[in-house]
Design brief:
6-stranded parallel beta sheet, single chain, Rossmann fold, 15 helices, 7-stranded parallel beta sheet
Length: 409
Amino acid sequence: MAMKMRILFVHQNFPGQFRHAARALAAAGHEVVALGIHTREMPGMRCLRYRVMAPSRQSVLEPARDFETKIARGLACAQAMHQLREQGFEPDVVVAHPGWGEALFCKDVWPAARLLVFAEFYYGGQGTDFGFDAEFHKPGLEAQLRLRLKNTALLHALAAADGGYAPTRWQHTQIPAPLRSRFDVIFDGIDSQTAVPDPQAWMTLRREGVRLSAGNEVLTFVNRNLEPYRGFHVFMRALPAILQARPRAHCLIVGGDSVSYGMPPVEGGTWRQKLLQELAPTLPIDRVHFLGILPYRDYLRVLQISACHVYLTYPFVLSWSCVEALSAGCAVVGSRTPPVEEFIEHGHNGWLVDFFDRAALVDQVVEVLANPAAQAELRQRARSGVVEHYDLQGRCLKPLLNLILGQRP
């Protein structure tokens, strides 16, 4: 029988990206403990929370305040880890997300434990989100220096780590070159047996009294929150021309009004309000349906009835929804940015357009909506590619478990 291990997951919003690994390890009989600020309970493991006390005074150096906040989180996490150690818990492995500072002091509490870091994103000044969209980001020297400081907590965690992983090859390339060889590329994994095509799928928009089914002209767009980082402004500005060219099409937009990345509009309000106000004279609003944040089953139904799904992003972390859309057999029109290009080959399993080329986006979406039969093979290749390379159970979970358990090839 394999040796049972003690494994600690550290994530501000546990389970986050650790959901499947933590569940599988607990089910295999390993002792799993999770630590975070907004930790959710999961069966078979101890899920603990800690509180962060904000500094009573902020640094007089404004660029240092982000790191100061992360230090506060790291210190609070270290205190919680110290209490665990005092109670007799000695992990064999600590798996940590470093994004908010919680991984800063793991090695100081448990120097003998193997530290694995989830290298989600290391900020860079060239070829990434920084300065990508000149409409909202006009970086000067001060912003460039601030970005370097933003990596401070990440750099400490990456340097202290015994290993770790990044979810995509492109994200892996962002890790500083001297540290990169310690990290594997292991995608989070998609449940391709749940995110499946369904030619019988349908849904009713109760407020509008509209029933839409697979086979209808349904254009879909999904973000966790509707914001420029995920191309919401580009999509919305293309929408009037798309809907004018396709008078029977309906557009379903899924996502909240908060901000996950970047900043809210400078004039206040939400990005949805801003874009609706800007486009009011030209947008046929009776065919544009904002569905908010949906339960997973309803969100999946949106993908299953989609005739064309648009996914746009800055050069940044790829959304799970992009890969789930491919798994569900959507005809995806994506932005020609590095995270998307890693998953979509133009004309093979989806379509790519320049992020800022509104005319190209309009033309490509209109073509997909106008010729649904021509998308059949592309849709099949989209799904088969996910099943072959990015399926949770078939491809992604085992390498991650092997990494955590020290069985890296």
